[in-house]
Amino acid sequence: MRPSARAFRLWCTGILAAALVLLPSCEAAPQEKVLVFAAASLTDVLQAQAELFDKERGVRVDINFGASNSLAQQIARGAPADVFIAAGAQPVADLERMGLTARGSTRELLTNDLVLVAPAGAGLVRSLDDLRKPNMRLAIADPELAPAGLYARQALVSLGLWPAVQPRLVLGRDVRTTLAYVESGSADAAVVYRTDAQISRDLEVVATFPRDSHDPIAYSAVVLRASSNGAGAAAFLDFLQGPSAREVFQKYGFTPAARK
Amino acid sequence: MLSFAEFQVVLLSLQVAFVGTLVALPVGLAAGWLLAKSSMPGKPVLDTLVSFPLVLPPVVTGYALLLLLGRRGPVGGFLYGVLGIDVVFTWVAAALAVGLVSLPLIARAIEVSMASVDPRLEGAARSLGSGPWRTFVTVTVPLSYRGILGGALLGFARALGEFGATIVVAGNIPGRTQTLPTAIFSRLETGDDTAALRLIAVSLALALVSLVVHQRLARRAIRP
Known about the structure:
With 260 residues, chain A is α/β, with parallel strands linked by helices.
């Protein structure tokens, strides 16, 4: 056999062997997992809840965090989520209207507040009025993508600050990206949820927006109709409304909604 | 050190890139052979089609796949309607995306190395009674195997770094479809620079290994 032909066969065998080793890890996700699509503002608290759920029930929960509207769009296009938790009622209602949710599984999970954050200590922005300063840059979430941006716009409009800040806005993909813009100094202040502000040690709450300046901030959760693990999905939502999960939510600053 | 989640990202990236390359390889072989050896009509059209994923924004390639594989698309609709399978937003979609994006690199390398196979050798095989398929398998492919492997390695390296098409058609779901580039993007977006740097280091190492192997193959190919 010519050497190059032998080398060729060696390579082929090697590639086949690698394929055999790699392919078993390619099997479909087992049934006892739950895939949750959740609003970015829930990042830390839901990771803690997922760990707790795994410890108590032995069911693994994977979570994809993002802007609620982007996630709803992905679900509408066929993303294999079992549970969807949005930072507002609208993204869930949209999916409901498209017939993509399990009937009767929608529930209100949490409420939150909207605040203005800025770097702790000295800084350009110390109050809501400072938003009128001409050299100030304000980060909000993109209202098209994330409910946080929608609430922020509503609040700024109703307080009469919108015309002043609009030319100096930095739009984040979701509320956590928005928060990162102030943390990295790309913006002087940001409008985020109170719970996001608590996550960051370098930032402080400069002002809280009055509750009547924006729609009530309510997190909606739902089981998706196409879920391959409907029972696990419903169990996780029930768990999130149970006593041990409520405690965790409160620890992270969320207010659990009254169970109906 | 890498956390379990980061290790998972690396493993999934390797799996996606490997399977993507494996899927693109036969297509690249066929396209490379047609471009180098055949005299079929419409070769310029094939030539252009093969190069498309190289010059299009990967986001567009991803969107094309999303339309094709989505539940309302021709392929995805069939798979979902008949078999109940969803392809989009799974690792399979990611593998198809990276395969499509690296196809031009693979096909070009194969075309070049097949074009340098002496047609007289193939002619000899044909005159001794080999059919076109047997000639292809026993003469053309073995004589151009370095180019084929080189193309596959380059395609694999490109697949490991693919971002745009992947995030459109497979999303960025941790543990399911999050690959190295999309994981790095997420870490950067949320300001977790140290985690991003760890993953960047892994990316660099993997790219370096594939490129070094690719170079060694290329150097040996030049030697008579």
